[in-house]
Write a structure and sequence with these properties.
Length: 127
């Protein structure tokens, strides 16, 4: 999915949030893996849109998750994945992730990323 923004303010807010969201998502995946038998591999995806996936292997199964989609779920309000990655969707920034000084609210970002990654691991297939 390719996000579109209502205005330049939203664009700049997304610029502020996406890299920290990516770092927090990857860190939360690492932390979740510590408590499971699942193994993770990361790979670049080139088509239809360049990005990254984390592939989780365990219990004889493999589940691949688009990391950018996870970041979008952290950074945007009420974000839902589209059926095709070529679709566009106008998104709204979760401004709770930005504190009163205009910086990232790291506590809220950590909490939101942790909750999302925990949901991913909770939805993994059982043996």
């Amino acid at each position: 999915m390719k996000p579109t923004f209502k205005n330049m303010v939203a664009w700049h807010q997304a610029e502020l949030l996406m890299q920290p969201a990516l770092i927090r998502i990857l860190d939360q995946v690492r932390k979740q893996l510590e408590n499971t038998t699942w193994k993770a591999t990361y790979r670049d995806v080139q088509a239809p849109i360049p990005g990254y996936e984390v592939c989780l292997e365990g219990n004889g199964k493999e589940v691949c998750v688009n990391i950018w989609e996870l970041c979008y779920q952290v950074c945007f309000l009420n974000y839902t994945s589209t059926h095709t990655e070529l679709e566009t969707q106008e998104v709204e920034i979760d401004t709770n992730l930005i504190d009163e000084t205009g910086d990232v609210d790291w506590q809220y970002l950590d909490t939101k990323a942790q909750r999302l990654v925990a949901q991913v691991f909770a939805s993994l297939p059982l043996a």
